[in-house]
Amino acid sequence: MGLRDVAYAAYAARLARRLDTARTPHHVGIILDGNRRWAKASGEQTHAGHRRGADKITEVLGWCEESGVKVVTLWLLSTDNLTRPPAELGPLLRIIEDVVRELAANGRWRVHPVGALDLLPQETARLLKDTASATSDRDGLHVNVAVGYGGRREIADAVRSLLQEHAARGTTIEELAEVLDVEHISEHLYTRGQPDPDLVIRTSGEQRLSGFLLWQTAHSEFFFCDALWPDFRRIDFLRALRAYATRQRRFGS
Description:
Layout: H1 3-18, E1 27-31, H2 35-41, H3 46-67, E2 71-78, H4 86-105, E3 110-114, H5 122-135, E4 142-149, H6 151-169, H7 173-179, H8 182-186, E5 199-202, E6 221-224, H9 234-246
Parallel strand pairs: 1-2, 1-5, 2-4, 3-4, 5-6
């Protein structure tokens, strides 16, 4: 281990010791951005960047687990990404499938798909559903994998599901309009029953949500990190937790 590695390890340990564990976020959302730019900067093909980014996921989830985070939502593939050329999308879907299998093989984590599974290839959707079923009784870290996810699509799907549910009960549109509130829609989101994210981390220096958990992030805190996702370090994660712990959450006020 070189001098730089020793200094890094010491700094990371000091950051971890100084964290206010009483203010650890319960739910962390992560926008894994920068794989393609990492590949370009490294002179690699795009799929190599996606593979390198996939290799980072289990490590980061381990940091979350060590820090006391209970729920993590990983945005792996947006609905917009589904329009990418087949030469890029095909390998990316295979990498995501490998990630899901690896998360399930952990033995402790509960894996829950978040997204419009009907937009995905049949084999990808089936793997996500089977993994959710196989890990549903685990009580470790709850990992949402957002695949084929778009915030506007989620809200539209929630409203559609709500209308279908009430139509099956014989409720008229007028009757529903009289009682409809935000909780009715929340009960039909992909993340229904889960707490909203306390903290959202986006890598690569971009400072926007791009439609990530539009409904659920109304009162979330945000941390934008310059590092590309494959280069995301433990000290970057700890800095995000430190920034969150120092903020006075106002929940919209």
